[in-house]
């Protein structure tokens, strides 16, 4: 069945073949969901729920950088204090 793409949605190729037109391989989703389903570096990082040290990324525990990067406050604060002590 062929239908129009709903307003605000894009087509996600579930088979990851962008030239595919099989209806059962196509899923209309918001652009953010489409990007998160990809295997790009930014999508892989966005799906992470914990920092490399194992702390959970929560609103209270996450520092957001200007470029969109995330850092764990539990890990960053003691590291910055130690750096400031040695930099003096």
Task: Tell me what you see in this structure.
The protein has 88 residues and is an alpha+beta fold. It has two domains: 1-47, no CATH class; 49-88, no CATH class. The protein is 31% helix and 16% strand. It is built from three helices and four strands; from the N terminus they run E-E-H-H-E-E-H. A two-stranded antiparallel ribbon has the order 1-2. A hairpin with a 5-residue loop joins strand 3 and strand 4 (70-72). It is elongated, with a radius of gyration of 20 Å.
Based on the model shown, name its key terms.
88 residues, alpha+beta, two-stranded antiparallel sheet, 4 strands
Class inferred from helices and paired strands: alpha+beta
Order of helices and strands: EEHHEEH
Per DSSP, the total helix count is 3
N-to-C terminal Cα separation, in Å?
69 Å
Number of domains: 2
- Flag low-confidence runs: none
What is the helix fraction of residues, given as a range? 25-40%
Strand tally: 4
Spatial extent as radius of gyration? 20 Å
Shape: elongated
Give the percentage of residues in beta strands.
Answer: 15-25%
Largest beta-sheet details: 2 strands, antiparallel
| Average pLDDT | 88
Spatial sequence of strands, sheet with the most strands: 1-2
Protein name: HNH nuclease domain-containing protein
Pfam families: HNH_3
Domain HNH nuclease: 4-35
InterPro entries: His-Me_finger_sf, HNH_nuc, Homing_endonuclease_His-Me
Short recap of the structure:
The chain has 88 residues and is an alpha+beta fold. The chain has three helices and four strands.
């Amino acid at each position: 069945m062929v239908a129009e793409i709903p307003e605000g949605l894009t087509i996600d190729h579930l088979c990851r073949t962008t030239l595919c037109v099989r209806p059962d391989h196509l899923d209309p989703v918001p652009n953010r969901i489409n990007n998160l389903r990809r295997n790009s570096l930014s999508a892989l990082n966005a799906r992470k729920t914990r920092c490399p040290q194992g702390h959970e990324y929560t609103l209270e525990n996450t520092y957001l950088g200007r470029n969109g990067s995330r850092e764990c406050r539990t890990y960053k604060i003691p590291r910055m204090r130690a750096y400031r002590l040695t930099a003096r």
